[in-house]
């Protein structure tokens, strides 16, 4: 068994990691950590999150930066479900030990430090770790993930968006002057567990936010290798993301080569499911899958592709474990389906 631990185990993505690793056949969940000042420290995780099974009773231990080396030395895999700023400092310290790090935050997803600073409003001061970090979009980066010590697990919106766009870009079907337009809606768990008025049940409706300046725009652009116009929306539901992307294609594109592009990318994927109808978030909630469906208007040369995921799973925790499975030589879907 490989020993694993989770930092940020009391949060929304952290608790999904607890669920998955608790039942995983190869990873043994050895320790669950929260911050030194956490209101949940010393509690059992299933007392904090009653949805967990009775035997899923790990104690939420307080951990500080001082203990990172010692903790890293005791584990094979470390999962960081922490705020970006905390992962940014902690990942390089953990990596000094012989451990693999799977970071769910955005701290190491962008290779350009100036673009990072603009998007996250703080500077990444560990350029070597940035360079070593492998982007964990599992369907597209398998070989690099298999060899990685540091995996930057993609954001939730970027996962949903990139799965729809990349087959078209990589197959050179996108029209030269086309900027894909992505409209995506997330449930409120995307904002994390910390209470705020914008995510309170009474306040949430359906509305766009982060228009033309959301930090996921540069992440999608770097990994799709194209500019995009990305508009996120907050919806009045708990879990899930639905991303609808509109793209104009080259004159040479036809329904057959679009189908071929998606089939080449995902026909053998255990996680991405090519459907025969439009996906619905409720069908994906609590699963590690990404569902995809598209329609092409030949006359307008317009492709509309729709992808749906659970933001806490394929958008975070299950994709982190998908990457860990690959990094430890297993099939990507082990312990997930
Ligand atoms: N929610 C989502 O859909 C997605 C989230 N992510 C990313 O994953 C990460 C976790 O997100 P999420 O689970 O939603 O966040 P939550 O706010 O739900 O949880 C954050 C966790 O981090 C802990 N924490 C907070 N501050 C510190 C600190 N200074 N030191 C140590 N631990 C700390 C919290 O515990 P405590 O304060 O009790 O110590 C809690 O366990 C974030 O970087 C987020 O951007 C990525 C993709 C999707
Ligand atoms: C609904 C909501 O607020 N969603 C979050 C995105 C989820 C997240 O935590 O983003 P990372 O993938 O970058 O970590 C947001 O828009 O900031």
TrEMBL record:
Q: Name one GO molecular function term.
A: N-acetyl-gamma-glutamyl-phosphate reductase activity
EC annotation from Swiss-Prot or TrEMBL: 1.2.1.38
Pathway note: Amino-acid biosynthesis; L-arginine biosynthesis; N(2)-acetyl-L-ornithine from L-glutamate: step 3/4
Highest taxon, organism lineage: Bacteria
Q: Which UniProt keywords apply?
A: Amino-acid biosynthesis, Arginine biosynthesis, Cytoplasm, NADP, Oxidoreductase
Q: Where is the active site?
A: 156
Subcellular location, principal:
cytoplasm
- Entry-linked Pfam families: Semialdhyde_dh, Semialdhyde_dhC_1
Q: Which SMART domains match?
A: Semialdhyde_dh
Q: Which InterPro entries match?
A: AGPR, AGPR_AS, AGPR_dimerisation_dom, AGPR_type-1, NAD(P)-bd_dom_sf, Semialdehyde_DH_NAD-bd
Q: What enzyme class is recorded for this protein?
A: oxidoreductase
The protein's location, in the record's own words, is: Cytoplasm
Reaction(s) this enzyme catalyzes, per UniProt: N-acetyl-L-glutamate 5-semialdehyde + phosphate + NADP(+) = N-acetyl-L-glutamyl 5-phosphate + NADPH + H(+)
Q: Residue span of the signal peptide, if any? A: none
Residue span, Semialdehyde dehydrogenase NAD-binding domain: 3-148
**Coiled coil where?**
none
Q: Which SUPFAM superfamilies match?
A: Glyceraldehyde-3-phosphate dehydrogenase-like, C-terminal domain, NAD(P)-binding Rossmann-fold domains
Q: What does this protein do?
A: Catalyzes the NADPH-dependent reduction of N-acetyl-5-glutamyl phosphate to yield N-acetyl-L-glutamate 5-semialdehyde.
Q: So what family is this one in?
A: Belongs to the NAGSA dehydrogenase family. Type 1 subfamily.
Q: What is this protein called?
A: N-acetyl-gamma-glutamyl-phosphate reductase
**Source species, please?**
Agaribacter flavus
């Amino acid at each position: 068994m490989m020993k694993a631990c989770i930092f940020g185990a009391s949060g929304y993505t952290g608790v999904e990691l607890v669920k998955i690793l608790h039942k995983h056949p190869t990873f043994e969940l050895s320790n669950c950590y929260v911050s030194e000042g956490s209101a949940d420290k010393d509690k059992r995780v299933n007392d904090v999150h009653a949805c967990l099974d009775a035997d899923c009773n790990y104690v939420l231990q307080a951990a500080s930066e001082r203990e990172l080396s010692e903790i890293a030395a005791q584990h094979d895999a470390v999962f960081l479900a922490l705020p970006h700023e905390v992962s940014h400092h902690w990942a390089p310290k953990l990596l000094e030990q012989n451990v693999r790090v799977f970071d769910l935050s955005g701290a190491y997803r962008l290779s350009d430090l100036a673009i990072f600073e603009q998007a996250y409003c703080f500077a990444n001061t560990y350029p070597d770790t940035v360079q070593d970090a492998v982007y964990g979009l599992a369907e597209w980066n398998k070989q690099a993930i298999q060899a990685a010590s540091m995996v930057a697990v993609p954001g939730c919106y970027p996962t949903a968006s990139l799965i729809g766009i990349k087959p078209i870009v990589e197959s050179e079907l996108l029209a030269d002057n086309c900027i894909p337009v992505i409209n995506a809606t997330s449930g409120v768990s995307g904002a994390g567990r910390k209470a705020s008025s914008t995510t309170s049940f009474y306040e949430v409706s359906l509305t766009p936010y982060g228009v033309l300046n959301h930090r996921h725009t540069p992440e999608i652009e770097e990994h799709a290798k194209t500019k995009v116009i990305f508009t996120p929306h907050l919806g009045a539901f708990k879990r899930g993301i639905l991303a609808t992307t509109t793209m104009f294609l080259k004159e040479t594109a036809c329904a057959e080569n679009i189908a071929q592009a998606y089939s080449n990318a995902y026909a053998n994927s255990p996680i991405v499911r090519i459907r025969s109808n439009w996906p619905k978030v409720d069908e994906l909630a609590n699963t590690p899958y990404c569902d995809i469906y598209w329609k092409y208007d030949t006359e307008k040369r317009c492709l509309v592709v729709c992808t749906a995921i659970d933001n806490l799973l394929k958008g975070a925790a299950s994709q982190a474990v998908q990457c860990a499975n690959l990094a430890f030589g297993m099939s990507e879907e082990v312990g997930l389906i």
